[in-house]
């Protein structure tokens, strides 16, 4: 698996993931919005930590130079 995310992209994803997960687990967001925040937060956090975005691969896009 190759890295297809630039450093700034990874940082943004990790921050977004942590914020969305914190909102969910602190109970600030609940119901359907909470479930969406949980799923999007997990995906953002995992792809940011790994450095690979499957959607980028499918589309043929990369933020890494």
Strand content: under 5%
Number of strands: 0
Show unreliable segments: none
Relative helix content: 55-70%
Q: What class do helices, strands and sheet pairing give? A: mainly alpha
Instruction: Give helix and strand order, one letter per element, not per position.
Output: HHH
Count the DSSP helices: 3
> What form results from the Cα inertia axes?
elongated
Oligomerization state: single chain
Largest sheet: none
The end-to-end span amounts to 16 Å
Tell me the count of domains.
1
Mean pLDDT over all positions: 95
Radius of gyration: 13 Å
Polypeptide structure, described:
- The protein has 65 residues and is mainly alpha-helical.
- It has one domain (7-59).
- Helix content is 69%, strand content 0%.
- The protein has three helices and no strands.
- The model has no long low-confidence stretch (mean pLDDT 95).
Which features does this protein show?
65 residues; 3 helices; 0% strand; mainly alpha; single chain
Helix/strand layout:
Elements: H1 7-25, H2 31-50, H3 54-59
Task: Describe what is shown at a glance.
This protein is mostly helical and 65 residues long. It has three helices and no strands.
């Amino acid at each position: 698996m190759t890295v297809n995310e630039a450093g700034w992209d990874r940082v943004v994803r990790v921050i977004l993931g942590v914020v969305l997960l914190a909102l969910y687990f602190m109970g600030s967001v609940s119901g359907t919005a909470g479930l969406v925040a949980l799923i999007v937060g997990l995906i953002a956090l995992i792809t940011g930590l790994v450095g690979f975005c499957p959607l980028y691969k499918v589309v043929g896009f990369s933020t890494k130079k």
